[in-house]
Amino acid sequence: DVKVTQSSRYLVKRTGEKVFLECVQDMDHENMFWYRQDPGLGLRLIYFSYDVKMKEKGDIPEGYSVSREKKERFSLILESASTNQTSMYLCASSPREFSKGREQFFGPGTRLTVL
Amino acid sequence: QKEVEQNSGPLSVPEGAIASLNCTYSDRGSQSFFWYRQYSGKSPELIMFIYSNGDKEDGRFTAQLNKASQYVSLLIRDSQPSDSATYLCAPKTGANNLFFGTGTRLTVIP
Q: CA A35 to CA A17: how far, in whole Å?
């Protein structure tokens, strides 16, 4: 059974705190992704990684950084959390080529609230 | 600028009817298209993908693709209350990225 897990379902942090969101996949996937999902804005890609120690900016990378030291683990870091980073954060993983039925799997999500 | 347009809904259909969900996209380079279903409070799950012009059927679901018109749709036949969810259209862009639309919320009325 394929699985993408995220470290927390709910997280409350204060403005200015450093926040770590962890994601682990057990499918030996090459690609891993971090999205945020907000009402009316849909899923937006923050960062993705196609290999260990490799990272690429997505559509909204500002205010975020990532780390991928091991193939199965992809971390999202908010260096100094702000209230506009309150959102649902979704991690996903996929095989290197995910067309033709080899899909992208999502984790359960972390709802982050920044006060 | 990549854009994926979906009618946000809510789209309401009676149980047993056909639900039609539409999506237009701006990136002519997109070759594969994915439909995800997302129940409230849950993460998205893949239900269909299509990469050739025409129709693709899988059970009660049919995906339709027209690359010339940059249009992809999802039909759900014999709609059930359990189909009530938000449906996300996602063209594959670049090497291995999906660009998601904002989704259409479907409600199937018993």
A: 20
